[in-house]
Amino acid sequence: MCLINFQFHAHPNYKLIVVANRDEFYDRKTEPAQFWQDAPNLLAGRDLVGLGTWLGITKEGKFAALTNYRNPSEVSIGKISRGEIVQNFLVGSFSSEEYLQFLDRDKEKYNGFNLILGNPEKLHYYNNIEGEIREIDPGTHGLSNKFLNTSWPKVVKGREGLKTYSSSKKELDLEELFAIMTDAEVAIDEDLPNTGVGMELERNLSPLFIKMSNYGTRCSTVILVDHTDRVTFTERTYVNGEFASDKRFTFQLV
């Protein structure tokens, strides 16, 4: 998952609005979002290589989403798959605070990551670079492959796009939310971060929607949780950068 925009307790109709893109190599095998057979209360896609997930929500309202922290010089082979982080929280019985304290003790076992987790009433943010557990304030936020609300062009554009759209609409249109995440404009060089991957790749990774020859946006996800605890979860899948299918789930939190 490479871009997560979300609005928390800042809309008259919704406790939580999430619009997110997952970017990955096109040939990495993945199952689309579904309720898992081995965890029937968990709704999420599944990475068939690491067998974890990048984003999910349960029927009880537990929510988690993860992005990698981009610094290729610090990536080590043999560490635990970061996809397990989201999965283990969502299928476990830990509270958010308990789980984050556990993660902080074991943070060296994983390559760099950012994590948002909690429920529609209370969210936390953690990354294993800074090692600080933070409660997320109400408002509109953005997260890519640095830290929460870092001023990368794609983070600013996605966050402000969601904020502008949602502030003008009491009822949200899924197509309009997905449209925010299909912006493929490349940022100007002066605004690009330097994460150690080289200028050409920084340019290619700078749009909200990425489309390269072998890597790009594989799916977009919109999650809406209203004030009656009704969840609408929609996943839009892309193949080689082109629309493939939608899957939609609605359920009541228990």
> Hey, roughly how much beta strand do the residues contain?
35-45%
| Mean pLDDT over the residues | 97
- Give me the count of strands: 13
What is the CATH class designation? Alpha Beta
Largest sheet: 7 strands, antiparallel
Instruction: Write down the Rg.
Output: 17 Å
**What overall form do the CA principal axes indicate?**
globular
Question: CATH-wise, what's the superfamily?
Answer: Penicillin V Acylase, Chain A
Q: Using the 3D structure, state the CATH architecture.
A: 4-Layer Sandwich
Characterization of this structure:
With 254 residues, the chain is an alpha+beta fold. The chain has a single domain, classed as Penicillin V Acylase, Chain A. The protein is 19% helix and 38% strand. It contains 5 helices and 13 strands. It has a 7-stranded antiparallel beta sheet with strand order 3-4-5-6-7-8-9, covered by helices on one side. A 6-stranded antiparallel beta sheet has the order 10-1-2-11-12-13, with helices on one face. A hairpin with a 4-residue loop joins β5 (55-58) and β6 (63-68). It is globular. The mean pLDDT is 97. Pfam families: TANGO2. This is NRDE family protein. It comes from Psychrobacillus soli.
Summarize the structure.
By secondary structure, this protein is α+β, with helices and mostly antiparallel strands.
Provide tags for this entry:
254 residues, alpha+beta, Penicillin V Acylase, Chain A, seven-stranded antiparallel β-sheet, six-stranded antiparallel β-sheet, 5 helices, 13 strands, 19% helix, 38% strand, globular
